[in-house]
Design goal:
Blueprint lengths: L1 E3 H11 L4 E5 L5 H9 L5 E4 L3 H15 L3 E5 L3 H4 L2 H9 L4 E7 L15 H5 L5 E4 L6 H13 L5 E7 H5 L1 E3 L16 H13 L3 E5 L1 H5 L3 H10 L4 E3 L14 E4 L6 H9 L2 E5 L19 E6 L13 E4 L2 H8 L9 H11 L14 H12 L4 E4 L3 H9 L8 E2 L9 H13 L5 E6 H7 L3 H6 L5 E6 L4 H10 L15 H8 L2 E5 L2 H11 L6 E6 L23
Parallel strand pairs: 2-3, 2-4, 4-5, 5-7, 6-7, 9-10, 9-12, 10-11, 12-13, 13-14, 15-16, 15-17, 17-18, 18-20, 19-20
Antiparallel strand pairs: 1-8
Catalytic activity: 2 pyruvate + H(+) = (2S)-2-acetolactate + CO2
EC number: 2.2.1.6
Organism: Faecalibacterium hominis (ex Afrizal et al. 2022)
Length: about 550
């Protein structure tokens, strides 16, 4: 059948199972938006306040569901406003397809109005990107984008579509979505070697990252650690994969991890690294990281094997398939001496002490968890509040903690919370934790939450400073607080009212308990401002390049 480019655009989206798209209209994509209008019963478009918010919303949608998030923006500034969101998804291996409009093909490269070479701009931060120059190429290019986003190590793909391509006509043939290329193969001999090493270990430790969640390999991981009694530590991106309270879960590792997990890395004799890349926030000194251990690394991306830390056995493959193949070879075993050491270290972990005279982060987060129950989804911005959330939330869902890890994008949270809420439905409880610094960056997305009546509860830790950077200045720069006290006078309660949502301000725990209970009853978005001390710290913290002996405990 003969269709124009805009019609093909919508048909392929539906073909790929897309039901929600986030975006912002503009001249170069008017043809696409006109067709979306005609097909609003098939595809739900979510209009955000800013293209960056749309990109984070598509990201949050993908993280909450595992499905591909989709975002659409116009040419020039619309396209460049997506860059931070695309880079955020790229660093955390999130499947996303970004569509941008561009000037008509005769105007490309001529500095036309609102023209930007977005293909070149995004080349380093996408798995692949395309510029469609002929309408005949549009359908198969879109199909390739969705396939690439979900295949192997997941990530974002960009498709740039000049305006004349959206108007041109060609023959269109519907197709069934291609089967995603799952990496099912692995070296069986290497897996046998890995099992032998694990079976012989006296002090084994599993260290896992976000790749485990991406590979849907949570259950094989849990089976492994319980079958062989292997304690497990995780990165920020993997919080929730092993539930809070699981006896084998010894907490987050790295700069803002707990004492036990960092000590276990230093003292284990076998380290099994699953779906993780030994980032600089974990392996602060790559030369001494797990220096007493035989290191086994399993990752779907061969380029990550041994990239940051030298390993003894590198296995390329999907963690789910590799672990499933390894489990029958693993002996049921106990490690009483090793677990005794773990328990002794756990007694030395930092545990904050409540102060009834002020509102403290662990109190706030604990109360949120108590009132929300185990099914809530938590989203964060980036900063101190992010680390408090990672440390104190009682995670029970593998996709219940959504945060920007690799890029560390301040302003990520509200858009991501909108995407998660849209994906999961209004009956799902979504709570967003932010700080006053991060929240100022993209709080304009409040209008989106209000427009769509999304019951997102935003908890704002307001210490009136840029807390994480200020903490570094306290520790390493002799308290020279350069530009970390912005002297802002934002009244979040009044601002909430201006956006059309309900706001609360709390200075103590009883006030917060009452405010949060009331927020849970609201049908639309709410903000709860928590006034906290500017000297509240994230503990512990390991200086760059340090080891376990460098952990700052006070």
């Amino acid at each position: 059948m003969q269709l124009n480019g805009s019609q093909i655009f919508v048909e392929v989206l539906c073909e790929q199972g897309v039901d929600t798209i986030f975006g912002y209209p503009g001249g170069a994509v008017l043809n696409l938006y006109d067709e979306l209008y005609k097909n609003s019963d098939r595809i739900h478009h979510v209009l955000t306040a800013h293209e960056q918010g749309a990109s984070h919303a598509a990201d949050g949608y993908a993280r909450a569901t595992g499905r591909t998030g989709v975002v659409l923006a116009t040419s020039g500034p619309g396209a460049t406003n997506l860059v931070t969101g695309i880079a955020t998804a790229y660093m955390d291996s999130v499947p996303m397809v970004a569509f941008t409009g561009n000037v008509p093909t005769p105007g490309l490269g001529k500095d036309s109005f609102q023209e930007a070479y977005i293909e070149g701009i995004t080349m380093p931060i996408t798995k692949h990107n395309f510029t469609v120059r002929k309408v005949e190429e549009l359908a198969d290019t879109m199909r390739a984008a969705f396939r690439i986003a979900q295949s192997g190590r997941k990530g974002p793909v960009l498709v740039d579509i000049p305006k004349d391509v959206t108007a041109a006509v060609c023959e269109f043939t519907p197709k069934q979505p291609e089967q995603i290329r799952t990496v099912t193969t692995y070296d069986e001999q290497q897996v046998k070697w890995a099992a032998d090493i694990i079976n012989a270990a006296q002090r084994p430790l599993v260290y896992f990252g976000g790749g485990v969640r991406s590979a849907a390999s949570c259950q094989p991981l849990r089976d492994l650690i319980h079958k062989a009694e292997i304690p497990a530590t995780y990165t920020l991106m993997a919080a929730g994969v092993v539930p809070y309270g699981d006896p084998m879960n010894i907490g987050m590792v790295g700069m803002h991890g707990c004492y036990t997990s960092n000590r276990a890395v230093a003292d284990c004799d076998v380290l099994i690294a699953l779906g993780t890349r030994f980032s600089d926030r974990v392996a602060l000194n790559p030369k001494t990281f797990a220096k007493n251990a035989t290191i086994i690394q399993i990752d779907i991306d061969p380029s990550e094997l041994g990239k940051n830390v030298d390993v003894d056995l590198a296995i390329a493959g999907d963690v789910c398939y590799v672990l499933s193949g390894m489990l029958p070879l693993i002996e049921e075993k106990k490690h009483p001496d090793w677990m005794k050491m773990i328990h002794e270290w756990q007694a030395q972990d930092y545990h904050p002490v409540s102060d009834p005279t002020r509102l403290m982060p662990h109190q706030v987060i604990g109360e949120v968890c108590s009132q929300c129950g185990p099914e809530a989804v938590y989203v964060t911005d980036v900063g101190q509040h992010q680390m408090w959330a990672a440390q104190y939330i009682r995670h029970t869902k593998s996709r219940g903690f959504i945060t920007s890890g690799g890029l560390g994008t301040m302003g990520f949270g509200y858009g991501a919370a909108i995407g998660a809420q849209m994906a999961l439905g209004r009956e799902q409880r979504v709570v967003m934790f932010t700080g006053d610094g991060s929240f100022h960056m993209n709080l304009n997305e409040a209008c989106t939450a209000v427009s769509y009546e999304l019951p997102i509860i935003t908890v704002i830790f307001n210490n009136s400073v840029l807390g994480m950077v200020r903490q570094w200045q306290t520790t390493f720069y002799e308290k020279r607080y350069s530009q970390t006290d912005p002297h802002r006078r934002t009244d979040f309660v009044k601002l909430a009212d201006g956006f059309g949502l309900k706001g609360y301000r709390c200075t103590n725990l009883p006030e917060f308990q009452a405010a949060f209970a009331d927020a849970l009853k609201q049908k639309g978005p709410t903000w709860i401002e928590c006034i906290i001390d500017k000297d509240e710290k994230v503990l512990p913290m390991i200086p760059g390049g340090g080891d376990i002996n460098d952990i700052i405990m006070e």
